[in-house]
Write a structure and sequence with these properties.
It contains 7 helices and 10 strands. The chain is α+β, with helices and mostly antiparallel strands. α2 runs antiparallel to α3. The chain is elongated.
Length: 214
């Protein structure tokens, strides 16, 4: 769904001027999008969101890139890195305010990056989600395990510069480590039983190897 306040109409035929908001064209997913768009005859420009400057004066606004005013594209495709979420979403929102169609709105991206909020939205619309419990404290991990139906459980530690995902068959020994995070715990068996592929790609510096099954 394209969004933008008073969004302009995207040309149905011919070349589209597409702006990709991404930290670098060398990011593999960004590079692939650029190749695909150009192969279809579209004009693509990749802008680093943190180098986009926003101007507002109460009645109008505009965008600059490296101190030069930007010509607005036909459509914007945000690829906002987790590390620049706050600033990146402000840039996305500014494009929308200026009437540029945006493939993913700032609000949609923010929802997608809040794991519990995503599950709440899915559940509110009648979409089945695995048994889940979220807590601020790791004071009683065993009680959390009981609430989701027992081990094995998927434990998502939310906080810091990134999230950590663990598959645990027992949790008591890790309670001291867990206390530094918000904790989201899910019934792992229901994820396996569903028609989904669950893939773990561990970050070797931050994940307990004994907790991972590949």
């Amino acid at each position: 769904m394209l969004a933008g306040a008073g969004a302009r109409v995207i040309p149905s035929q011919g070349s589209v001027r597409l702006t990709l908001l991404s930290r670098s064209i060398s990011v593999p997913s960004t590079a692939r999008l650029v190749v695909a768009a150009r192969a279809r005859g579209h004009a693509v420009r990749v802008l680093d969101p943190v180098q986009v400057e926003m101007h507002l004066d109460g009645s109008r606004g505009h965008l600059l890139y490296r101190r030069r005013r930007l010509v607005l594209p036909d459509v914007v495709l945000p690829r906002i890195a987790q590390s620049i979420t706050s600033y990146g979403l402000a840039v996305v929102n500014q494009y929308g305010m200026l009437g540029v169609p945006v493939m993913n709105t700032a609000a949609a991206i923010a929802h997608a990056r809040n794991k519990m909020q995503c599950l709440q939205l899915l559940s509110a619309h009648g979409i089945s989600v695995p048994a889940t419990v979220m807590a601020r404290s790791a004071g009683d991990l065993k009680a959390m395990v009981r609430l989701v139906g027992g081990v094995p459980v998927l434990v998502k530690l939310l906080g810091g510069k990134g999230d950590v995902v663990l598959l645990r068959y027992q949790v008591g020994s890790a309670s001291n480590y867990f206390c530094f995070f918000f904790i989201l715990m899910q019934d792992f068996q229901s994820l396996i039983d569903a028609s989904n592929a669950v893939v773990f790609v561990p970050h070797m510096a931050s994940i307990d190897h004994s907790s991972i099954i590949l």
